[in-house]
Amino acid sequence: MQKIQLYIEGERVDMFEDESVTITQSIKNVKDIDKIFTSFSKTFSLPASKINNKIFKHYYNFDIVGGFDARKKKDANIELNNLPFRDGKIKLEGVDLKNNVPYSYRITFFGSTVTLKDLLGEDKLGALSDLNSNTLTYDSATLKTKLKANPVTNDVIAPLITHTQRLIYDSNSSANTKGNVFYETGGGSNLHGVSWDDLKYAIRVDTVIQAIATTYGITFSNDFFVSTNTPYYNLFLWLHRKKGLVESPTATQVESLVNTWVITSPSSTLTYMVNTSTLYLSGTPNRYVKLDLKLRTTSAFSYSVSLQLNGIEIHNSGTVTGDLDIPKEDFTIGQGNYNVIIQSAQNITFSEVTWDIGFFIGFGQVRLNTYTSTPFSHTNDFDFIITQQIPDIKCIDFLTGIFKMFNLTSYVDNFTGNVIVKNLDNYYSDGIAYDITEFIHRDKSAVNVALPFKEITFEHGDTKTFLAARHAQLFNNTWGKTEYSNGENLDGGIYKVKTPFSQMLYERLTDSNTSNPTSVQYGFFVDDNQNPYIGKPLLFYPILNSGDSISFLDNNSSHSEVETYNVPSNSVALSSATSSYNMNFNAEQNEWGALENPADIGFTNSLFEAYYKNYITSVFKPSNRITKVTAYLPLKILLNYTLADRFIIGGNSYKINSITTNLETGKSELELLNDL
Predict the structure, then answer these.
(1) Average pLDDT of the residues in 16-32
(2) How far is CA 240 from CA 182, 383, 463, 535, 539, in A?
């Protein structure tokens, strides 16, 4: 019999003498193969003794000021015979009373890795203030610099991914289409190229991971999250939070004087006021109200206008040039705050912005009044604050997505407190073997079917961007997706492993004039109708490429040559001769090499091949079984085993699928997967 000792924030608690403490641990349970955090929990009772009442500050007494806060988990650890067993957290669930006298405290002990989810909670990537040390000015000069920046040494770069305009390459000197990135030697007179405001920055994924670690006081091990791990470290996250143009945190709003009019009509009264960037309407006339918004400018620069009612967008102009009229008619228009938000990538001046307000009586319009602003200018330069531009995703969901991509598992080192993160294959390779043959209770055992699924699918969460959607339509399969079965017609369902990320099909441009492949590869992040698209967060590999210079539109009146630029890719390298790793689950066609060889797959180390195949194929083997046995494990094994270890029984090796242990007796119910 082992003596169990429980400590809460360093204080030893009293336990019932007959309290049975049983814990269950499981790693990559074959019935839930995308379970990424090893964990266990146990709910049990503690006596309402003097010591425990002191620790829990008489929680049953409502009158105590500054009592025990049961809303928060507390650090805890379990010892067996005065030797460390497991660290974790406890949560107070409640107090049981008998005859109105406290009898016991109900608590739950959580294994350490569960607390990773607790630490991150519902926080989003935008909460990672450390990322703002990478803040840049959003203007053409900085965009061009970051487009040419080496991603090996720069944590923030600009990839050749557009969000409004499709690019072409046409060396015909008369081809002056705006999206033509061909650069004429000497500059040429034709104004075309990639618009700087059609580009956005991207940040290294590891920078985000390390910001999570710093923000929440986590130390990740250097097993996977390390710079020498190229398939992980070279990944970047595109900073695309909102479709269309990048929105400045201080987007220009209409500045105005305060004006108030009271209008009396035969049947209703309408009062409205224009007040510094806001139009107020109060009193709802029983009439058809019409608002006409007119903008006047002689500028040749493009801009967009968002009309908002109580902070909710009710109209968006899209990208326009020159004067703009926005009629807004609605039977329900009434009391509320109306905001006009103007965005432009260039400095632009408006001679006036006019509100025309009226309503209809029968078939006639009553014009109430007109408000016109004084001339004002919009300035495009602003700080690109990372936390305000990073995709809108929870930290835990982002981290979980990375775990799913690379088939990672994690656990907390009981000695250092570090979170150990490893690919599952590497995790198992570090395990040791324990021969438990002599400890097996042979009266009862069972051998069960290992896997209740006939097929497993692996895919990214969003493949709806233009080229990926067209690929699905043409070939009737999803870009980057793979399906695995052992080729037999098995019974069971389909298990899905899906990340929360977008997956793009990139395009290597061909010179329309010569039909020759160019060195330009880019991403077109729009929907199937070629409209701006928000999608899910996009991960990619940037590759600094050169060869064919591209034309870069610094503004609407000048362009310049860019000789090296970051092309986006699904692969670590453009050529499989350099690296065969890519972030498709399936070994898809090589976007780069396909122009020269349509049959080129090249990148054989897909996510499935590199990180899942060994484990999945072993699970699907016809000879695979789940063996259930009972063992009375000695203290030397209970204190030291990890879920990466193997158990040897009668000369046969088994991986631990799950283990449920009574800490007092050492009696353990084992689910073992034969290690073939």
Answers:
(1) 74
(2) 26, 15, 16, 9, 11
